[in-house]
C-alpha cells in the first residue's frame, strides 16, 4: 500500500541530498528527503570543508589562473586515468556554476585558497560544512516543496513488475514500515560504508583494521539496495586511508597535513621514507608499511607559522592547544619526546636541509611542497614540532556506476530506470586516487545534476 507520493524521493540528508532537493524544488518538483538519523549532515559535516573549484572570483583575486581544462587534467592525472572520463567531465562542466549557485544561496567561503595533492594550482575553497548543509536545508524549507523526514530509514527499492522501473522506496520509521512512491525518480545520496567494518574488510582487507571515521549512518545500506537491483560498482579496488590522522587524538577527526607546508615524515627509526609532496592517500599506504603503522610529521617554527586556522587540515595551532602536536626546543629533545633515536633524527633533518639548499632531494626526489607547487623549506628554526600520524579511512570514495546524468548503471551496462545516485556512494570520479576537495565537491555538483535528470525523467515519461 502506498502511503504518499512525491516527484522525487531523496535518501540521505547530507550535502548531496540537500543540493539535489533544493535544485529539484526550485525546478517545481515536490520532494521528500528522508534521513535515518536524528540530525542532518552525515559525513559532509565531518569533512574538512574543502571543495575543489576552478576559475572562481576568489582565485582571480589572488592572481591564481585556473580553468576547466586544468582541473580536468589534474583529476584524470591523480586518478591515474582509472576514473571515468565522462564522470570527470560532468564534474568539471558543472563545478563553476555550482560555486556560483552556492554563493547565491548564501554560502560563505574563506578568502584563503589552498593547494593540495594533485592540484597544479591552489583551488581548495573552504567553507564550514555544517553551516553549508544547514543553509541548504533552510533554503529547501523556504521553497515549500521539500518535506524532510528525520529518523526514517530506507529499506528496499520498489520496481514496477513489468517495466522494472524504480518507482518508490520502502521506509521504516519508529518501527513502522511504509511505502513512498516516486513519480520521477529515487535518488540515493546516503553515503558510503566507512562505518561498516565488515564491508571494508571485504573490499579492502588491507584496511580492515585501520582507523575508520565517517558519518554514523554510513554503513552501506544505499549501496546494498542498489546492488540488490544489479547495480555495478566502480573504484572499489582503490579504497585507501588518508595520511595525517593522529592515532589517539579524540578531539579532531581530521588529518593534519603539515607536509604540504614543508614538513617531512619520518618513521620510528627517525628516517624519511617517501616524497612528502605526493597525494595523502599514497602517503597513507606508505605509512601503513612502516613499523607500527604510525609515523611523524616533523616541522619547525617557520613551517608551523604557515598553518591556517580557517582550514581544518592546516590548523596547527588547534592541534598544539589540544596537546596532539608535540613541541620541543631542539631536534634532540623532540626525538626524545617521541621516542626515536636522536642522532638519526638529527642526521635526517640535516641531510634534508642540505638537499633543500642544493635544490635536489637525492633520497626521494621531492621538488615541491605539494604536487607541482611551492618551494621546499628548511627545518631549522626552533621550536620544533612533531605530529604523530597514521592512515585513516575517512570515506570509501567508490560506489555504484553512474552515467553523466547520475543514472545508476547495472552490471550489463544498462540504466536502471528511475534510480539516481550522488555523493560519496557513486564511483567513477576518483579512480586510483582522490583529489582533496573533489569528494565534497561531487556531493553538491552531482546532487544538482541528479535533480536536473529527475526533471527530465518526468518530462520524457509525460511525452
Written account of the structure:
The structure is a single chain. The chain has helices at 15-26, 57-61, 68-78, 85-105, 129-143, 197-203, 221-228, 280-288, 301-304, 316-322, 331-337, 342-358, 438-462, and strands at 2-11, 31-34, 50-52, 113-114, 124-126, 146-149, 152-159, 166-173, 176-188, 211-212, 233-234, 242-245, 264-266, 295-300, 326-328, 384-393, 399-400, 407-409, 415-421. With 463 residues, the protein is α/β, with parallel strands linked by helices. Strands 1, 2, 6, 7, 8, 9, 18 and 19 form an 8-stranded mixed β-sheet that branches. Strand 18 and strand 19 (415-421) form a beta hairpin. It is elongated, with a radius of gyration of 23 Å. The mean pLDDT is 94.
Structural class, by secondary structure, is alpha/beta
CATH superfamily of the largest domain: FAD/NAD(P)-binding domain
* Proportion of residues in extended strands: 15-25%
Average of the residue pLDDT scores: 94
Helix run count: 13
**CATH class descriptor of the largest domain:** Alpha Beta
CATH level-3 fold name of the largest domain: FAD/NAD(P)-binding domain
Question: Residue share in helices?
Answer: 25-40%
| Backbone CA Rg | 23 Å
The strand count comes to 19
Termini separation comes to 27 Å
How would you describe the shape?
A: elongated
